[in-house]
């Protein structure tokens, strides 16, 4: 198979959990996969080599941020995002819709799109399906996301339907605006809030547009965990078998394990990187807040079972000192560890699916991790 | 020669410039040497491996900072600073005197030492020759500095004499408090302000104490550059031939080149690391402020002649973006470059001395660098 054809290949299954491989123009992605977030053309605080060495096949970058600064056209003139930020592997860009709703000021929604003021300089900006798709093209995103409205939680069924239907009209316009290239892909985003019938309707509409992959959007927006799981499981049951399934913006290790069990293939989340910079480390027994007084003289690594750079070379006592002293090296070391932890978790899940003992492995993991 | 004997070995000379090697318990140091500053048990923003890969043989750590946080006894219980911070090579610690005078509040000087309030939590603290020497012992410093008062500039000859004589009494007490260990060293610090006779007297007093090395203190405290050069040249002319000579807290590349020409062997300065975090890069043609608008679409590296990690992989356009976006990765990349630049400069000077064409090489360098 040519490396240049974008294709999802299912290698194994255990229950509903899928072990696969996505072939792209920028390399292959082993799934289930976790994508570290590199918002502004950098996975904050670490080198791309550290991201790769932790076992990352693909990263996510934010269209909203790069559109506002330094500008997608500037990045296009640099030869695209891969070259600009020194990351050769696949890159997925979101559509910018979510960030417009969570970060910008003075939003005004119309049928066309959304007008807003930049959170950086207050300048007036406009995003719609065509512009978002063009921005992602300029960035040379391996995987482009359709422009959508993230339905807030809570929302009535009427509100959720209105929002979903708008997103579906935007999905059609995004698909029309997308320029097909070998090894590249565009994913549609399922909306519909917490209403199964709306989700199903959304999936049907997206399937008609024949995207290269499908994402579950509008989750992890404040709904209770059981609702999140319910939506993820319902959606995956109705999504195509032969395309990647991506659960957007999720989440904790336990969310990832549960979602893989429903058949989700792809994840992104700021948790491992953002929490790292705040001094929280994900470990095989839960979460460690390294600033805690009890680690002041603790000469053990964050996680005895971890072979990452941080755990190989530094103690909790040292990491605590760095955070107490406000040294950015602390955030770097925890970021390296947390990404490694997430990628090791995904590797464990992939192996369990190959070995067809996913249920057993996932239950054991869920009894320990957060 | 045993690696465990602390010894300065002169390998070559060109004019007054010396090419040497210092043998220590933690490895050898090629001189003239630049020591990156690792104030709080980290060379800010980068990994120890990056420090080493840039060509650094030895780093400096600050006694004042580590005394206050996390505390030298805590570090001693961790097995010393090398193990704590994952740096196996030699470490030089300052005496804490300079920082007490530049950072702390409510200082009160007596014959014994100095009482002050911590800049971190306002707690009342006391440092003197014995305590400073003990702290550096607890840290397991390869090179311990004698406790001194940094004579301010300007100072009358009378003030400078009084200050120098106090520092010499403290030097004697520091020497008495120092515990000799194979491969370790203690350096005395020459004071005397801008007054040659006082400097000479200081050197004579220190030589009586037979330190393993000698430092020129009280420079780079606001005096004009010609005074700095004058002091450095005068002192080196009177310092022992068979011991390392260390010019404290200096400086710009041009200061280093000039001082090496007088026979100085060792340097430390926060400039390459601090300026990096502020967006200033030292390059073979001077200094680059990467935030400058003119680099927005500049696809060239910081320095075409540099083979550091940063220059190999990133453009000025990308670095400018990182600084404009407030991304700490920008500070990391400039720190890696600036330390590499300083170490390459030192390597060039060492080679020039070996080739006995130091005058020619240094003049060419001085015509370009800052």
Provide the fold topology.
Two copies of one chain form a homodimer.
Chain A: E1 7-14, E2 17-24, E3 27-31, E4 33-35, H1 48-53, E5 59-61, H2 63-68, H3 72-77, H4 81-85, E6 91-93, H5 97-103, E7 105-109, E8 113-117, E9 124-128, H6 129-139, E10 143-145, H7 157-177, E11 185-190, H8 196-208, E12 213-216, H9 225-238, E13 245-247, H10 253-262, E14 266-268, H11 271-277, E15 280-283, E16 286-289, H12 309-313, H13 316-324, H14 328-354, H15 358-366
Parallel strand pairs in A: 4-14, 5-6, 6-10, 10-11, 11-12, 12-13, 13-14
Antiparallel strand pairs in A: 1-2, 2-3, 7-8, 8-9, 15-16
Q: C-alpha Rg of chain A, in Å? A: 20 Å
Beta-strand residue percentage of chain A: 15-25%
* Count of individual domains of chain A: 1
Biggest chain pair contact, residues each? A-B, 35 and 35 residues
Q: Overall mean pLDDT score of chain A? A: 96
Q: Which structural class should the secondary elements of chain A be placed in?
A: alpha/beta
Q: Ends of chain A: how far apart? A: 39 Å
Per the CATH scheme, the topology name of chain A is TIM Barrel
CATH architecture of chain A, please? Alpha-Beta Barrel
For the largest beta-sheet of chain A, the strand count, sense and barrel status come to: 8 strands, parallel
CATH class of chain A: Alpha Beta
The number of helical elements of chain A comes to 15
CATH superfamily of chain A: Queuine tRNA-ribosyltransferase-like
Oligomerization state: homodimer
Going across the major beta sheet of chain A, what is the strand order?
A: 4-14-13-12-11-10-6-5
Globally, the shape of chain A reads: globular
Share of residues in helices of chain A? 40-55%
Number of DSSP-assigned strands of chain A = 16
Residue stretches of chain A low in confidence (pLDDT < 50, at least 5 long) are: none
């Amino acid at each position: 198979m040519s490396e240049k054809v974008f294709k999802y290949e299912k290698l194994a299954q255990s229950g509903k959990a899928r072990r696969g491989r996505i072939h792209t123009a920028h390399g292959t992605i082993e799934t289930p996969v976790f994508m570290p977030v590199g918002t502004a053309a950098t996975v904050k605080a670490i080198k791309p080599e550290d991201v790769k060495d932790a076992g990352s096949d693909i990263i996510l970058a934010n269209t909203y941020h790069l559109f506002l600064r330094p500008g997608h056209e500037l990045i296009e003139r640099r030869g695209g995002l891969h070259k600009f930020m020194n990351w050769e592997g696949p890159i997925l860009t979101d559509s910018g819709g979510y960030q417009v709703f969570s970060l910008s000021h003075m939003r005004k929604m119309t049928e066309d799109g959304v007008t807003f003021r930049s959170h950086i300089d207050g300048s007036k900006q406009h995003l719609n399906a065509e512009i978002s798709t063009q921005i992602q093209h300029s960035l040379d995103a391996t995987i482009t996301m359709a422009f959508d409205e993230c339905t807030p939680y809570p929302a009535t069924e009427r509100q959720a339907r209105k929002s979903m239907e708008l997103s579906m009209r935007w999905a059609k316009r995004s698909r029309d605006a997308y320029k097909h290239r070998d090894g590249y892909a565009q994913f549609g985003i399922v909306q519909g809030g917490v209403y199964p019938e709306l989700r199903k309707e959304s999936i049907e509409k997206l399937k008609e547009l024949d995207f290269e992959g499908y994402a579950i959007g509008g989750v992890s927006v404040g709904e209770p965990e059981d609702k999140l799981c319910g939506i993820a499981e319902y959606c995956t049951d109705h999504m195509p078998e032969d395309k990647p399934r991506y659960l957007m913006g999720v989440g904790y290790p336990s969310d990832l394990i549960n979602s893989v069990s429903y058949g989700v293939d792809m994840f992104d989340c700021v948790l491992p990187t953002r929490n790292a910079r705040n001094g929280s480390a994900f470990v095989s027994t839960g979460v460690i807040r390294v600033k805690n007084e009890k680690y002041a003289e603790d000469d053990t690594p964050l996680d005895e079972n971890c072979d990452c750079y941080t755990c190989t070379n530094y103690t909790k006592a040292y990491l605590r000192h760095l955070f107490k002293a406000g040294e950015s090296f602390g955030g770097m070391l925890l970021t390296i560890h947390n990404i490694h932890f997430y990628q090791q978790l995904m590797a464990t899940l992939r192996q369990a699916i190959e070995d067809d003992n996913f249920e057993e492995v996932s239950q054991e993991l869920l009894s320990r991790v957060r």
